[in-house]
Specification:
Blueprint (H helix, E strand, L loop, with lengths): L4 E2 L13 E2 L20 E8 L2 E6 L2 E7 L2 E2 L14 H11 L5 E5 L11 E7 L6 H7 L4 E2 L9 H14 L3 H4 L9
Parallel strand pairs: 5-8
Antiparallel strand pairs: 1-2, 3-4, 3-7, 4-5, 6-9, 7-8
Length: 181
């Protein structure tokens, strides 16, 4: 068994838990150990697209980019919608309705070039690991940007299984970056 590890990096003034990963055993929808249960640190405001959400953190709205995944574009003004983009956004809306309590878990880098928070997103009520579910259920592919890659191997195996089974976008589009025809 590979021991658990903890990345302790300050995230500006926000108190988000550092990422912890258990890389032993099969992937599940809860990556953290239940004994490490964190209190909700954000509340869902709205979905931007399948891999970006807006949350309320301590009374401040923040755009959050889900780490490690890529969903087809559905809101980019400079390019057409991609195959399965609307479905990916709708799935995030279904998983995270407005007001849902969330646990945002960070990795090494706190923000991206667009100043979005980078996070692994969990529903607080049942610890559903949203990033993972989107890959497993074929609504997202992987997008790995080291050093934010704690769950990269887990996501890679889930994507491979979804591809092989032709799940969701893999069966309809062939991948997350295909334009609508």
């Amino acid at each position: 068994m590979i021991p658990r590890f903890l990345l302790a990096i300050a995230l500006s003034a926000l108190s988000l838990p550092a990422c912890t990963a258990d890389e032993s055993g099969p992937a599940t929808t809860t990556a953290r150990d239940p004994s490490d249960r964190a209190d909700a640190n954000a509340r869902m405001v709205r979905v931007v697209d399948g891999d970006t959400i807006v949350v309320d953190v301590d009374g401040r709205e923040e755009r959050v980019r889900l780490i490690g995944i890529d969903t087809p574009e559905s809101v980019a003004e400079e390019r057409p919608d991609q195959c399965y983009g609307v479905e990916a956004s709708d799935e995030v809306k279904r998983l995270l309705p407005e007001g849902t309590e969330l646990v945002l878990e960070r990795d090494v880098e706190p923000r991206d070039q667009y100043d979005r928070l980078l996070a692994y997103v969990y529903r607080a009520e049942d610890e559903l690991f949203v990033n993972e579910v989107l890959v497993r259920d074929g609504f997202a592919g992987i997008l790995n940007y080291p050093p934010n890659d704690t769950y990269a191997e887990r996501f890679r195996s889930l994507e491979a299984a979804a591809r092989q089974q032709g799940t969701a976008l893999w069966g309809v589009c062939g991948g997350p970056d295909e334009p609508l025809e």
